[in-house]
Amino acid sequence: MRHILKTVLQNNPGWFKTLLGCAVFISCGLIQGFQSRNSEPYVLIYPTNFGSPFVIPADNPTTKESVYLGWLLFYEKALSVNNTISCESCHQQKLAFRDGKAFSTGTNGSLTARSSMSLANLLDPQFFWDGRSPGLENQAKSPLTDPHEMNQTLSESARKLSNTALYPPKFTKALGNSEITEDKILKALSQFERTLISAGSEYDQYLAGTYQPTAQELRGLQLFENGPDPKRGIRGANCGHCHGGVKTFKELFHNNGLDSAATDIGREQFTGQNSDRARFRVPTLSNILLTAPYMHDGRFTTIEQVLDHYSEQIRQSPTLSAFLQDISNESGGKQLALTKNEKADLVVGGRSYTN
Fold first, then answer.
1. I need a surface site. Which of 133, 323, 324, 353 has the fewest CB within 10 A?
2. All structural domains of the chain
3. pTM value?
């Protein structure tokens, strides 16, 4: 049985919408799992053209009941120190599992160091902007316990859930017995997050041969995929280096020229390598019009500002990614130099193309 969790974009222009917005979160058997409360295997509907499949740990097989339990926990405020926020507070379905803020607010009123990331298509084995987490089970631990987020130990979360009437029976059905442990909480949350597969946008339909883009959308797609080569008369927006392919991201970390001197050292904080300074994980563009503001610090509030940055505002620094250095649509140019019409082709699409 198929359940589609769909966030509808209305009257949002843009090739970015056509390319990646309006994506559909597809979960096989989700409603059935919610209703029947059984522990049958849960089959993830995973597009074959996405390439490598999800990495599912052998000790955490996906079942309908565990996905349901993870869904409950995702919305459970008792997992925070003062029972005020849940995972959903920073990852709202209507915003493609983001929160629409540059920085999220934790239980103590303080702000997170970086912007929350969308939970669509959790394919990369390295999570967070700096890639410090090697898997979903490990990733879930950080926001639950971080002082600037939910700020509660996993042992206290387990204790609180154990003292409810709701959760012990749910853990029994999902994970074998009523004992609620730190490990079981992380496993259930991870199982739910793996169901958030986004593969129904018009771009996905275009790749499948079931959607015909407009002439303007095709111009935008060509610009998106092309690198500029003025000697050959080829103009491009150079987006494909990071966001090419059907998943609209590559499992890489880049310094994309936001600052000459890094205020956030990015991946270097995790690896200790100077070459990683100001490098951040490439995020998916799935549901891009829902996931503003943009960049690790949320500095850009619109797609137009993002395009302006890549077109005219790249800042030089020692670790600036090579594909952004002296890449231009003009002979001898130092900046990308997109025209107003080219930016419009990248952004503006048919307003009627909504799911």
1. 323
2. 29-198 (1.10.760.10), 214-347 (1.10.760.10)
3. 0.87
